[in-house]
Amino acid sequence: MANSNRAIIRKAAIETGSLSSGLLNPEQARKFIQQTFEATNLNSLIRHEMRTAKTGEIDKIGIARRILRKKTENHDDGYRAGVETSQIEYATTAVRLPWEITEETLRENIEGQNLEQIITDLMTTQLGIDLEDLYLNGDEATESTDPDYDFLKINDGWIKQISNGGHVYDASSESSMSLDLFYKTLKTLPNKYNNGKLRWLMSPHRAQEWELFLLNKVVNAGGAVPESVYNSPARIPAVECPSLDDGTIILTDPKNLVVVNTYSVKIRKTTEGKEAIMMDKRFYATHLDYDPIIEELDATAIIKDLK
C-alpha cells in the first residue's frame, strides 16, 4: 500500500542534527508531490515531470501529418516518415513553507498531540493550493506595491506565458458572456489541436455566470438548452479552477501544461536549538522546487478582460 501523506511526513520529520536533514528518497518525493497535486481539480489533470537536475530540458516528440504513401509491390522508393524532436527548457525555482507550533498550544488543545499532525496535513493541502495558484498566476514582473508581491513574483505562470506566446482573445469590448465568445476563441486554435482533449479552465464564479446566462436565455426566449452546453461550451468540457480570476478563461489540453519538480524535497522538523528552547516551540519547514512550463504554446488560447 502506498505511503499516506501522514506516513511520509512522519518518516521524513527528523531532527536537524541528522545528515539527511529530512531529504525524502525519490519514491517518497514523487508521492509527496503527487499528493500536493491532488489538492485541486486542475493539478490532477496536468502533466507532472520529476527530474534530478534543477535546470535542463524535456524532450518533445512530434509526428507530421499525411505520412502514408501508396505501396508498390517489390519496390522501395526510399521514403521514410520522420519523427520531429525538440526540447523544452526548464529552470526550477526553490520555495519553502515554514510554520511553527508552541508546546502550550499542543498541551491545551483538545486534539493534544494529534494537533501537530492535523496542522501538518492542513499545511500540505494548502501547499498544493498555493502551488496551483503560482502555476497559473505567477509573474516575476509583479509590482512591488501589490499586496501579494512576495508570493506572485516567485516565477512566471501559465497565464503570463500564454499571454505572451499563445492565442489571445481580448474580451474587453464584450458587454456580457455569449456562446460566440467561446467559438471565437476556439477558432484561434489550429484545427490539429481541436482533438477532443481541450478543456476550458475558468473560475467557479465564471462557470456559474455561464449557467445563469443560459438560464436567462431559456426564461426570456423560451425553448430549451441542451444539458451538455451548461458544462461544455462549444462541446468542450469546463474545469473549475478557484485560483483563476473571473475575467480570464484558458483553453488548452491540460496535459499541455507541465510542472517540473526535482527530487530535492525536504520536510524538516526540530524541537531543539536556542529558539525552540527559549520560545518553547516546534519548528517545521517544507522545501521543494518547481517550474510551470508549456509544451506547445501554439496549442493554447486565453480569454482576457472578460466582464
What do these coordinates show?
With 307 residues, the protein is of the alpha/beta class. The protein has a single domain, classed as phage-related protein like fold (Alpha-Beta Complex). The protein has helices spanning 5-12, 26-37, 103-108, 114-137, 149-152, 158-165, 179-187, 204-221, 227-231, 274-279; strands spanning 47-51, 55-63, 83-91, 93-102, 167-170, 199-202, 238-240, 249-252, 257-262, 266-270, 281-294, 301-304. The strands form 3 sheets. Strands 1, 4, 9, 10 and 11 form a 5-stranded mixed β-sheet that branches. α2 packs across α4. The longest helix has 24 residues, at 114-137. Residues 5-21 have low confidence and may be disordered.
Provide mean pLDDT, rounded.
Answer: 87
Radius of gyration, CA atoms, in whole angstroms: 24 Å
> The CATH topology is what?
phage-related protein like fold
Number of structural units classed as domains: 1
What is the H/E string? Answer: HHEEEEHHHHEHEHHEEEEHEE
The residue ranges in which pLDDT falls below 50 over 5 or more consecutive positions are: 5-21
- Number of DSSP helices? 10
Largest sheet: 5 strands, mixed
**CATH architecture assignment:** Alpha-Beta Complex
Count of DSSP strands? 12
Distance between the termini: 48 Å
CATH class: Alpha Beta
Overall geometric form: globular
Class from secondary-structure proportions: alpha/beta
**DSSP helix fraction:** 25-40%
Strand content: 25-35%
Question: Can you tag this structure with a few keywords?
Answer:
five-stranded mixed beta sheet, 12 strands, single chain, phage-related protein like fold, 307 residues, 10 helices, alpha/beta
